[in-house]
């Protein structure tokens, strides 16, 4: 058997998404941050681990947030949203050259430039003293027409979502189709 190297208590579950969390603060000012420590934990639920950020305060205050998927077209903007806090740069969304509209479903902003966005209400926030775990319930998913196929379904190939490579701190594009779920394994039945 090939030799293996141990890295200790370090996770590199792949893919880690690049989620852009959109919120409003107490004055209705929009904020957005980059979060990789999250994912979908059921058909209608998502979970994210957040440290103490402006976004974290906003989610607890408004009990709502949006989750857009960073795409290959907006790598620089998405990384910027993870480098700068609205506590120091209140107009970080504008500085990133991004635009927002109100969600029709929750009290949170939808960022126009990202083609795919989930709108969530807060179900729970488990405070761990240094931030906590957010669990949200999905109330709507919206997609720009540019990423729909001829039948009106979402085509992830057109979205070109990016993932966070925590082993090397790279952003990688989520790529090609290599198989069919619930089907290809049947070849071994
Ligand atoms: C690739 C990347 C992934 C990140 N993932 C997370 C995360 O999962 N949880 C978290 O609390 N912060 C994460 N951050 C840091 C926040 O995005 C960053 O602190 C941001 O400035 C917070 O913005 P805010 O204070 O305006 O809310 C990440 C940053 C980057 C660049």
Describe the protein's topology.
Blueprint: E1 16-17, E2 19-24, E3 30-35, E4 38-42, E5 45-51, H1 54-62, E6 64-69, H2 75-83, H3 92-95, E7 100-102, E8 109-111, E9 116-127, E10 131-143, H4 156-159, E11 162-165, E12 170-173
Antiparallel strand pairs: 1-11, 2-3, 2-6, 4-5, 5-10, 6-9, 7-8, 9-10, 11-12
The protein binds flavin mononucleotide (FMN).
Residues 31, 33-38, 49-51, 53-55, 79, 82, 84-87, 131, 164 line the site of flavin mononucleotide.
Task: Walk me through this protein's architecture.
The protein has one domain: Electron Transport, Fmn-binding Protein, Chain A (Pnp Oxidase, Chain A). The relative contact order is 0.19. With 189 residues, it is mainly beta. It has a 7-stranded antiparallel beta sheet with strand order 3-2-6-9-10-5-4. It is globular, with a radius of gyration of 18 Å. It contains 4 helices and 12 strands. A hairpin with a 6-residue loop joins strand 7 and strand 8. It binds flavin mononucleotide. Flavin mononucleotide binds next to strand 3, strand 5, helix 1 and helix 2.
Shape: globular
The biggest beta sheet, please? Answer: 7 strands, antiparallel
CATH architecture: Roll
Bound molecules: flavin mononucleotide
Counted up, domains total: 1
Helix percent reads 10-25%
Fourth-tier CATH superfamily name = Electron Transport, Fmn-binding Protein, Chain A
Strand order of the largest sheet: 3-2-6-9-10-5-4
What is the fold named in CATH at topology level? Pnp Oxidase, Chain A
